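>> Question from a student workshop board

For tomorrow's exercise we were told to take the sequence and the ligand below, predict the bound structure, and bring the output to class. My setup keeps failing. Could a helper post the expected result so I can at least see what it should look like? The ligand is iron/sulfur cluster.
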Amino acid sequence: MGTPLTDIDSLDAELIECRVCPRLVEWREKIAQDKRASFRDETYWGRPVPGFGPPDAPLLIVGLAPAAHGANRTGRMFTGDRSGDFLYAALHAVGLASQPTATHRGDGLELFGVRITSPVHCAPPANKPTPAERANCRHWLDSELKILQPSLRSVVVLGSFGWQALLPVLDDAGWQIPKPRPTFGHGAHIELPHPGDPGAEDPLHVFGCYHVSQQNTFTGRLTPAMLEAVLADAAHTAGLGPGQH
Ligand code: SF4
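>> Workshop helper replied:
Here is what the output should look like for this input. Compare the format with yours to find the bug.
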């Protein structure tokens, strides 16, 4: 990396050119070329998917990685698949999104005080990035957190992969992580002080939530009510309330 990235537009512009992980570059481009039959007339994004939402958001949602025919097709986080349908319906239900659906960039969807990102920005085969790929992608999350830090108050982490990826990055950025490191669980809630940041008098609140994958939502392991409860809690903690937008 050259100059440190201090604004979100520069970060996103560099991110979408990234080709560091050979396996993921090959996979994301192959998917974009082969396509799913139902999307054969569409031009797939087929590149790294940047975070979505305002750069001064008090609340951050951290997922896993783009889905092959969802974000890797549409170019926007959680957009165009069933996981996204589930997430955006819940965000809308608690007043954090302008509409309950996310179909494509340019569909008018707006997030209120929330940004969504992932620790791996390219679609991986079988939704499973390798540890090396996660390590390659870590600096993007690190830069994004640094940009968000002045406003950031709460994080909702969807699934254990995101949890394990995020905590070391928060640690490096100066937040105090308890030892032993807290484990992921749905309903987990930890508070992390940041003694080195004079502007941050409040701790960062990190919430664990099952991932919105179909494996969880189709089986009822994660229900809309469960997701909405975590989001509402995190939004409240972040100072986002009904009518703030
Ligand atoms: Fe680059 Fe991250 Fe994609 Fe790897 S996963 S190619 S580091 S954007």
